[in-house]
Amino acid sequence: MKAYATKDIRNVGIVGHGGTGKTQLVSSLLFTVGATQRLGKVAEGSSTTDWDEEEIGRKMSIQTGLAYAEWAPPGRGDKVKINLIDLPGSITFINETKASLVAADAALIVIDAHSGAQVTTERVWDYCTEFDIPRAFVLNWMDRELSSFRRSMESLHDVFGRSAVAVQLPIGEEKDFHGVVDLVAMKANLYKPGGDGKPSIEEIPADLAAAAQEAHEKLVEMVAEGDDALMEEFFEKGTLPVEDLVPGLRRAALEKRIVPVLMTSALLNIGSASLLSFVADVFPHPGERVAAGTTQAGGKGDRAERKVDDAQPLSLFVFKTLADPFAGRITYYKVMSGVLKNDATLTNLNHSAPERFQHIQVVQGKQLSGNNHGRDARGQGGHDFLQARAHSRAIDHICDRAEDARRRRSHRGGHPQNSGRGRGLALFPRRADQGISPGGLRPAAYRSSCGEAPQTLSRGPDAQAAEGALS
């Protein structure tokens, strides 16, 4: 896997009510991009991100699953790396979902096309609002009996208002569902049920032409709202050309004026390529998020801020820990700024303890392998993982030792809470009581003394204690 520039990285949380097919959707996306040799299925215990024995037995996610997909949208030569964060939907594990959603720059909220918006749907929507991240709805299980696009859209409008706007229409209903109409390009994407997830692009069927035109005009109107330049063009031409509609849709989604609605059948691998292209074209890269930083409690002390830039001082935020009986404590973190190198010794600000990093690795489900940069991980929102020493736990803040020394000198003789165990570089997303804004992220885990060969994670009896830090 090659090293990716910041603009070619997407960090996406997959959230929604339990049973909506989030993990199955991740498996279909991975199969479509060729990351797996066959379509993993939750019912068979072969999905990529539900690898724990208890998850396989329950057929549901109970912890954060991580994977990545490399995808080149049509008409774009370079691939985009999409980091997928598969999060639990059961209310029992909702704290896990919230704790790890902080590692996303955008979210796909998966909806059961039969049930519509449900209790956890509203809760994860609130989490997205709290973390200030753009989102889109994915109507899944479109192939199942009693699934309904119309009824699902009515449910979304009742709960979330008119901002939920379809960017696709289904081709076929229930068991006859076999494709989507792209309302941006105004083309039909036809899929082979159970196929490779890549469509044939054809003209819109005659029986859907009128409905597609009406839905396209509604989409254009919603995109033009709130954008003076596009509104003026819309009034002059009566529509927006594709070359203006795509950037307009992207801006509207990033500003949360529009929440796009897409459709899939995760089990039959229908709609997967269209969803991947949407994520690559519309969702933000880490550099488009505002700088991360924090002000000390009570407004005392200087505000420390970081941009998503290699030239910035190194700063990390730990968002999850788990225990493995073979590899030890595994810690997932995001690199907010700077460059993390192998053999680097950093400072854990929460524990005033050194942290040594070795053998940066990438995680695909339960598989660990050498990272794409060979020697370093950069603050560009990537998805590298390492294995941890005992100090780091969820919500810890880590920076380079030179930066820690500089901050200590700057606060010497000042406020005691700014020096020692600290809030340091608090890298949470923005919250009303903290005024914190999110930056780019690089989920990762780090390891102390293991070899370069790929490894497999397993979950030991002490994992529950490690996960307690998340709740």
What does this structure look like?
A hairpin with a 2-residue loop joins β19 and β20 (367-370). The chain has eleven helices and 24 strands. It starts with 8 loop residues before the first strand and ends with a helix. It folds into two domains: 6-284, Rossmann fold (3-Layer(aba) Sandwich), CATH 3.40.50; 292-470, Elongation Factor Tu (Ef-tu), domain 3 (Beta Barrel). The model is unreliable at 294-299, 379-395, 411-454 and 459-471 (pLDDT under 50). The protein has a nine-stranded antiparallel β-sheet with strand order 18-17-23-14-15-22-19-20-24. A seven-stranded mixed β-sheet has the order 2-3-1-4-5-11-6, with helices on both faces. The longest helix has 19 residues, at 206-224. The chain is an alpha+beta fold and 471 residues long.
Shape: globular
Number of strands: 24
Strand content: 15-25%
Q: The biggest beta sheet, please?
A: 9 strands, antiparallel
Top-tier CATH class of the largest domain: Alpha Beta
Count of runs of 4 or more consecutive helical residues: 11
Structural class: alpha+beta
Low-pLDDT segments = 294-299, 379-395, 411-454, 459-471
| Oligomeric status | single chain
> What's the arrangement of strands in the largest beta sheet?
18-17-23-14-15-22-19-20-24
Alpha carbon gap, first and last residue: 34 Å
CATH architecture descriptor name of the largest domain: 3-Layer(aba) Sandwich
Mean pLDDT: 79
> Nearest-angstrom radius of gyration?
22 Å
- What's the number of structural domains? 2
